[in-house]
Amino acid sequence: MTEWWRGGVIYQVYPRSFQDSNGDGVGDLPGIIDRLDHIASLGVDCIWLSPLTRSPQADMGYDVSDYMSVDPLFGSLQDFDQLIEKAHALGLKVIMDQVVSHTSDQHPWFGESAFSRDNAKADWYVWADAKPDGSPPNNWLSVFGGSAWEWHTARKQYYLHNFLTSQPDLNFHNPAVQDAVLEVMRFWLDRGLDGFRLDTVNYYFHDAQLRSNPPLKSLKGVPATNPYDMQSHKYSKSQPENVDWLKKVRKMLDQYPGATSVGEVGDDERGLELMKAYTSGKSLLHMCYSFDFLGPKFTAKHFRSKVEAFFSGGETGWPCWSFSNHDVIRPMTRWAPYSTTPSDLARQSAALGLTLKGSVGLYQGEELGLPEADILYEELTDPRGIRFWPGDKGRDGCRTPMPWQHELAYAGFSTAKPWLPVKPAHVALSVDQQNADPNSILNFYRTLLAWRKSHPQLVTGDITFFNTSEPVLAYRRSAGNKDLICVFNLSAEPLTVKLSKVELELEPVSHNATLEGSSLALGPNGFAILPAPAGEGKVSYKPV
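Structure tokens predicted for Alpha-glucosidase (544 residues):
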């Protein structure tokens, strides 16, 4: 079985917001099935489905109450099987979110664990006694605000929840928990699933001694919108025991030819370090992504430093770079200060993400150039946004429904009022309008993805960066005796880059670029991709 995932492109579907088939205002599995042709038309390799399993939906499915059933909100196991069958027929792999660092407090496991201190699952969650004064056992904080500890009156103990109080953390120090999680994974793989996106992969283990976290030294006394960001999470997550557990996961996955894994690493201090550690060699995860490219930074230094850091030291790990997902502000909005024309920024973002070394994650709507939706406070559903508004408006703005047909109510997503609104700025970028426009962002994505597949340098080739000043990012992708030189102007101002005197020509996917001799003129957010003989061709740029 080939390593299809290495250099592959994964398209994330957020089921609530992709397509509603039954008129309840919420997307579902039959709706996704109806729209699989759109995904296949892009030329991606795989679909990542955000959570579908049964859940009270306190955190939009990231609070699981039954790991082995589909939530009726989205359909049935039969619908899931049909989706797998059609996706495979279209040449698409399918992976699914596996949310196992925590469960819902409505999961039967937690109900049993909370009943007493001596039942069969008493140690399946992280329980601890109060301090003598009744306060929590340490200073750990929840990502969603407040203490990470919640008092349970039946057990007369605190339980750990890194997220909502209704999302108690499983105790991975208990081998029985690990066995149960592996059983869950086998259930879905046996139904034909091609692997998993492992949610919060560095949160599985906690410090068994429950030592308090130190303050974050780099904060320099400036309060954060969320107090969670004021701690260095040395003991509450990213523990060394995680590596041996991930080896067990990989060993199980290897029993299913072609199955893959991509881990989400949420650690602002050690993201790249953990990505490397969790994917090194052949015995751990296949891929990981962190939040390094999911923030506001848009500089040549930032992109270069992160890619070089990952591949330094002869590392054998593999990244899955992403610019967008269901947890962050869409790149068209957060990188808008570096552009004057949204369509130029959308094309540059696509070309940059699809020419770096690594696999690629795309998020629904990214292929349309959707900006962040402007959600009013009264429209919010995200518990994070509700708690921290307006300093943190939460994640609803990137989770709004896909705009399919501009003339239909709710842009063709549903016949009923959707769970989140469809904003006019998104209707203007609908799929039907972009399908009809050969120069649209959507059709650029299709062209770029097809072109990428025909150039092995971009799928598995090496990467070497040129020494250029801001705002120019330039690198060489190499495989065999042919290279590709990629040059990006990460700004809204035109500039000219010097090339060495090797006969070069622009690939047709280049944008806002003109080549005259050794001078490469790049307009705002312009970029050029140029074939070159192996090792030949150089790029230089210094601002005037």
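The chain has two domains: 9-101+175-453, 461-540.
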